[in-house]
Design brief:
The structure holds 2 protein chains of 2 kinds. By secondary structure, chain A is α/β, with parallel strands linked by helices. Chain A has one domain (12-167): DsrEFH-like (Hypothetical Protein Ychn, Chain: A), CATH 3.40.1260.10. Helices cover 33% and strands 20% of the residues of chain A. In chain B, strands 1-2-4-3 form a 4-stranded mixed sheet, covered by helices on one side. Chain B has a single domain (3-72), classed as TusA-like domain (Translation Initiation Factor IF3, 2-Layer Sandwich), CATH 3.30.110. Chain B is globular, with a radius of gyration of 11 Å. Chain A binds chain B through residues 12, 31, 34-35, 38-40, 107-110, 118, 122, and chain B through 10-15, 17-18, 20-21, 39, 48-49, 52-53, 75-76.
Chain lengths: 168, 76
């Protein structure tokens, strides 16, 4: 059976491989997925490794200042960078995470929960990597209901017929 | 041809677009959706949204600090 090529596909389509699950890295895939869906794209997200954390029923994304050289928090009328050693001080990551969440709320930016819910409601197809589930000993029941399980071959089957494919 | 209103003031990307899409789906074809937003990025985004979805951007303007868009529901 001949597969459709990208040129044959009428509906615009996009996939993103989601590999990171922290508070800040959780945003780009969900923002792009929900926006693409609003723009009538057929969207598939493939969650693998730490990206899988974004599918947990209780979404509790963590945040770290470690290795984040470009991160500058707006404070005291200026921007304050966080040196790496700060992450070693107990509580610093939690405080920075709370600050980030407060900033997100104050600036009218959607929470990750809201964006994930919007993704579900706009029929974004979400596939959890079966191998990652096995590796990190997650059960499908730990994740939200609106997902399917699949592997790399499943991803390629969809990606080869999608207009836009990204890795985050 | 009725007019519907969406207040997206104070919301940031991509919420104005998501809410506009949801509302457009719920209104009859050829009706007009008037959107009020404060996100400066929404000026470029609503133009792009319309060109991607086949809806017609009738008007893109500004009243004080508020951006006003009029979109005719001509897309799917």
């Amino acid at each position: 059976m001949a597969e459709d090529t990208v040129a044959d596909i009428k509906r615009k389509s996009m996939t993103i491989i989601v590999t990171k699950g922290s508070l800040d890295w959780g945003y780009p895939p969900f923002i792009l997925a929900t926006t693409a869906a609003a723009l009538d794209y057929e969207v598939t997200l493939f969650f693998t490794f730490y990206g899988l954390a974004l599918l947990k029923k209780k979404l509790d994304p963590k945040f770290t200042v470690l290795g984040n050289a470009a991160m500058e928090m707006p404070m005291f009328g200026t921007h304050i960078a966080m040196p790496n050693f700060m992450a070693m001080i107990p509580g610093v990551d939690a405080i920075a995470g709370s600050m980030m969440k407060k900033m997100i709320k104050d600036k009218g930016v959607a929470s990750l929960e809201e964006l994930r819910e919007a993704a579900v409601l706009s029929d974004v197809r979400m596939i959890a990597c079966q191998m990652t589930l096995d590796l990190f000993e997650y059960k499908k029941e730990d994740l939200i209901d609106d997902i399917e399980l699949g592997g790399a071959a499943t991803y390629f089957d969809i990606a080869s017929r999608s207009h836009i494919n990204m890795f985050m | 041809m009725a007019e519907h209103t969406l207040d997206a003031k104070g919301l940031n990307c991509p919420l104005p677009i998501l809410k506009a899409k949801k509302m457009l789906k719920s209104i009859p074809k050829d009706d007009v959706l008037v959107i009020y937003a404060t996100d400066p990025g929404s000026v470029a985004d609503f133009a792009a949204f319309c060109s991607q979805t086949g809806n017609e951007l009738l008007e893109s303007g500004q009243e004080g600090d508020v951006f006003v868009f009029k979109i005719k529901h001509t897309g799917d």
